[in-house]
Amino acid sequence: MPETGANPYVSFVTWGRNDGYTDDYLSRMEKAMGCLIRQLEAARLDSEIVISEWNPPPERPLLVDSLALPRVSSHVSIRGVVSDPSHHTRFKGSAEHGMHNGEAWNVGLRRARGRYVMPKASDTFLSHETIERIARRDQ
Fold first, then answer.
1. 71-109 pLDDT, tens per residue?
2. Which residues have CB under 8 Å from 62's CB, separation 6+?
3. CA separation for the pair 89, 96 (Å, rounded)
4. Rounded Cα distance, 76 and 99, in Å
5. Residue 9: which of 112, 79, 89, 120 has the closest Cα?
6. For residue 98, what pLDDT is reported?
């Protein structure tokens, strides 16, 4: 999805890696992200979704390239940020664990451009009431 030039009001930051963690991970992520995009569009909320990919497997495509998400949006941009695997190997236990959730979230949070930032697990849903409250902005 092309990035919009506008500064987002809110950034939703999620993390992951396309490693086949579960058979239906991409499907669950697509459903949750697709729902979020529809909610943000309906609320006309200028926003971005940042997908932080930690230690991506070199033999698999990036998550941001693998997800079947709407490609045209007036109010939502989606972008991926990738942490090089060399950052992963510095952590104790890196050979046993491909993902460091907290570090992946930090990478996305630090690169978010929104006035407000909201971490969000990639396969979870937000209520319509939550989106409506955020869309009211500072009122």
1. 778 999 999 999 877 766 666 766 666 666 677 888 899
2. 18, 53, 56, 80, 82
3. 10
4. 27
5. 112
6. 60
